Protein: Alpha/beta hydrolase
Amino acid sequence: MLQTLPRSETPSGVAYVDRGQGGETLVLIHGVGMRIEAWGPQIERLSREHRVIAVDLPGHGFSRPLDAAPELPNFVAWFSGLVDELGLDAVSVAGHSMGALIAAGFAATKGDRLRRVALLNGVHKRTPAARQAVEARADEIVSGNFDRQAPLERWFSDAEKDGAAYRLVHDLLQAVDPKGYAAAYRAFATGDAVYSDRWPQVTCPALFLTGDGDKNSTAEMAEEMARAAPHGRAVVIRGHRHMVNLTAPEEASETLADWLTWQPAR
Structure:
């Protein structure tokens, strides 16, 4: 049975958890079809030393749907409004997959509110063939006739399909609201190039982490973004795919813990 973390809710209807204190204030943004529980290992590890806030995306978990067109800039505006609503000043932000695109947009547009940024399994400038494939999946999802099992084949290797991470992600995909999923996936499918040329202007510490088996959010994408950012660092975890924060929780969490204290040379 899917275990639900206790949540609070903002006046605008965003569900979130708030754990820990001290250190950096870190906000976690999950990917399409997921919810706060997909960050379980990172919330537990990082809240020992930092304040950690994890949010449900619009139309996911217990958050209200997005009241705007399903485009990436509107999700970025939603997140910026949440930072204001929670009364946060400067924050560190880590996003996974769709959450990584939102984090990138926040870094590009609200750099004065950002201490550091981390993209986990973030997509960057898809090839034409990859764009066509993901937009076709978005069309299928919007139609309401989509296979909730299909992402599991891309996100997990055969060796990972008997694990707790696989079971959790399977259950989250089964539970997600179809309309919320479709809106977020449309923005994900069309958003990879919106802020992709802005990394040279992002001067805070920037981490780009993925698994070497992720064929859609590739190691090459992570390395390209890291080269473009003045203080970028790419980390590729071997033997893992798209849900690397769950299939390699200790390594991913420790990499994030290091990033939260990393001070690049001036």
About this structure: The chain has a mean pLDDT of 95. The chain has one domain: 8-259. The two ends are 49 Å apart (CA to CA).
